[in-house]
Structure formats: structure tokens, C-alpha cells
Amino acid sequence: MSYQDVLYEVEDKVATITLNRPERMNALSLNLEAELHRALDEADADRKVRAIILTGSGAAFSAGYDQAAAPASGVRHTDPQGKSHAEYIEHWQRHDGGRINNWTHMWSLGKPVIAAVNGWAMGGGFWYQLAADITIASDKAVFAQPEVRHISNTTYLFTALCGWKAANRWALTGDHFDAQEALRIGMVNEVVPHDELMPRARALANRIALVPEPSVRLNKAIAMQGMQAAGVHSALLLEGALSALAHSSHNEERERLFEAQRKDGLKAYLALRDGPFQPEPMGPRSKPRAAKARE
Predict the structure, then answer these.
(1) pTM score, whole prediction
(2) How many domains does the chain have?
(3) Could you tell me which of 50, 14, 39 has the C-alpha nearest to residue 215?
(4) What is the radius of gyration, based on Cα positions, of the chain?
């Protein structure tokens, strides 16, 4: 199977899927996301593969859904301009309801998915590493859901993993947090020096591959299907409905952001959205600009 936006390779018993749009910080396009799930299915169907590593090329795991992408009409789906209320709500209901299938797809695989977070994990990229069976983070990794700053949703997966206090702290602000904070709140399994990320992920994948295949497959199912049966899946169905409501809640503040993007592009949009939150509490953007200039 050939791919345009992901790299797929199998070495020994481990498949590595690399998100490969480094010029866009591996932002999730329709094609990249479709290819990612095809690659997961390819690895799952390959009886030689016993574990899957998911990582990103360049400086990011994934910066989230591509805010610059536009359909042939030139008007982004996220922008309500030129759409009826019904059309706008329909788009978000289909999008947010369908996204739950991405997580359940990962959980239904017979092979464990190890997310090796090599850098920025934002928005949709943040969610994919949450949904992985195991997450190992580089000490350069940075996590956030900055999209909440333009009226968007978090995910219940964050609460399920880390508890509501930690989830609320970071999801209600969209603030950046670093790998050590991710470890402290239980979001990642391990933090390793950046240069050791892939060797450590491969070592763990190879260790899993030593266990008989039925044991790994069925024990993953016990964890992931059991979690869904215990109520997480119901919570995600509720999340899909409330996320569509959040995305459809267009108001004056968000219109100001969209107007900046229509006039001056994505950079202006992000400057207006994130500027009031600078400096971030953690990560590369945690230092005041004056301090960065002196370094």
C-alpha cells in the first residue's frame, strides 16, 4: 500500500507509522488522517507485526487539525461565512461524531499502539497520543489544546486518564504543558531524552513482541473493551454531541478571529488568539519575548 502523508515501515516484528507533513508540523489533513487509519489496518492485518509505533517527522508529533486547509470553494469548513445555521451544525455533528470512531478504531486493533511523542502534540495530535495504548514522550515534547481559545472542545479521554482536576486545569485554558507535567498527571508512561525516544519505543515494542500473540491481543481487549463497557464509550458519545454544540457556538469573539484570518491569514489569526496567553506556563514559549531575544 502506498502513502503520501505517512511513512510506513516494518522492522522485525514492529511497524512504525510516521506522520510525514513536517513542513506543516504534521497537521492533520483529511488525507493524512485517512492514510493513518489505513496504515493502522495494514499493520493489524500483517501477522508478522506484533506492535505498532506512531510518531511524527520533524519538530512535531502533530500540531493538530490543519487550520489553513480549505476546500475547493476557498471557504474553510470551520468558518460559518456563507453557510446556513443548519449547514454549519450539520458539518460539526458529522465531524465530531465521526471522530469518536478514530479512537475506537485504535482500541479495536489486535496490536498495541505506542505513541512516541517527539515534539509538539497539539489539538488533534494531543488526542491521538491520548488514545494510544502506551505513550512515551521525548523531554522536548509539549502538549496543549489551544483550540479551546477559539471555542472548541476538549476530550473526555483527558479526564478519564488524568482526573477532572488535571484535565480542567489544562483544558479550560488551552495552556501548554511539558513532558514532565504530562508524566506527573499520568498522561504519559515515560519521559526519555529526545535522542533515546525511538530506541526506547522500539525496545518496548520488541519486549511486547516476546509475549505470545493471543495473550497480547486479548489482554489489550480486556483493557480497552472493558474501559468502553465501563462507561468511557458512553461519555465519548456525549462528547461528540457537546463538541458539535461547542463548535457551532459562533459568537463575536470568534468572528473577530475569523475576520483576522480572512484579511491577513493564519498567522494573524493565531497571534490574535494566542497572544493574550503569552508567555505560556511551560514549554518553549514560556519565556517572555525579551528574555528570548537576550539568549
Answers:
(1) 0.94
(2) 1
(3) 50
(4) 19
